[in-house]
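Sanity check

After download, print the first record. It should look like this:
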Amino acid sequence: MTHRAFHRQQGLSLWPLLIVLIVLAALAAAGWWGWQQWRVLEQDRRASQSEISELRSELNRESQRRDRALQEIRESQDRIEAARARDREALADVRQGGQRLWLINEAESLAALAGQRLMLTGDAEAARRLLQAADQTLARLDDPQALPARKALAVDIEKLNGARQVDIEAMVLRLGALQALIPELAVPERQAPPAGDTEQDAGWWQRLLNHLPVTVRRHDGEVPLPLTETQASTVRLTLDASLQQAQLALMQRRVKAYRQALDNAAAMLNQWFQEDQGRVRQMRAALEELGGQQVEQALPEIGAGLDAVRGLKRDLLKSDGNGAAGEAGR
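Expected structure tokens:
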């Protein structure tokens, strides 16, 4: 009975220890679970902060775009207001008697545009129409002082009328067609020595030259030297370059360079190509015809009309200034 009581007492003494262990295990599990939840919440918080930062950046960019758009709108409105102000000033100037100056400014702009059009594109017809519009604008003045400017414009218009009689585009195209014929030109080929000129008939010095690793050529008179294939290609390329230079000079209104290029092409034909070739005769005739055309007339220099219109404008401003000073003095 005593032994049984002892075991019972020992079993009862283990229960608090087991309870403590269970409580510790529960606390440890709860702590681990709480730590895991904290990690999840921390990750969510960081992700939320990143999204918030991106949204703030996007809002800032959108705000900057909006500010730029507003600035552009304001600048556009300012330009519109400035243009309207200029229009109102021009209208007021016309109403106050400034129509003459307005017409002269318009004529000056048309004459300047004609010169630019001729220089940049070589379009004589367009430049002629612009000068005619400038003359018609000055005619609206109905003022004898505008007659010298209209006379200068008439001279420029007549120059352009003469330019219309020479087709520059056709000349450029014809030079291109001559370039296409260059491969058909036959240059002198390498010739064999005469049959009677053998080593037995030649002297000892000639036999010595024949055995040397050199090629001796003789060029007596104006007969071209025999050419290798490489040299023949070089001659053709040089002739093609001369024709191309003539085209470029013609389009750039450089008469002297154009004629020099034609002379160079003719010299190449005379020096390196045989006269009995039909293509060579055709090309020489074409070069002579192109060189005989009045290219100077096709490429006129205008500007006297513009200078006269500007002189008329200066005289008008000077007279208006003197009139205003007289009014102030009275």
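If your output differs, re-run the checksum step. Summary of this record's structure: The CA atoms of residues 14 and 20 lie 10 Å apart.
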